[in-house]
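User: My instructor asked us to take a sequence, write out its structure as tokens, and then describe one feature of it. I'm not sure where to start. Here is the sequence I was given:
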Amino acid sequence: MATVVTCPYCGIDNLTAECSICSRHFVLTTAITEDRLRAFADEGLAATPPQYTPVCDFDRAKELGVDAAELVTQGLRQRTCVDCKTAFLYSDEQ
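Assistant: Let's start with the prediction itself. The structure tokens for your sequence are:
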């Protein structure tokens, strides 16, 4: 189930979900609908895609077998605001 969380730095709403693999919360972006890893410039989603099973960017990167540097990047990026690019999901409290 997706939850809207407001970024405390810029005030933009971010759609977040809990990963079905590791239970981490992460921001949903256009990378999900395009079936790729999240990029810095990706925009946020307004709604969860139909039939979507939430898998965080970190676990998706592990599934794809990316190198360690990209794995860390995905893990950090998944908790950042789609607008100001500041990390704001520090805990799994929603």
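For the description part of your assignment, you could build on this observation: The chain has a mean pLDDT of 94. Try explaining in your own words what that tells you about the chain.
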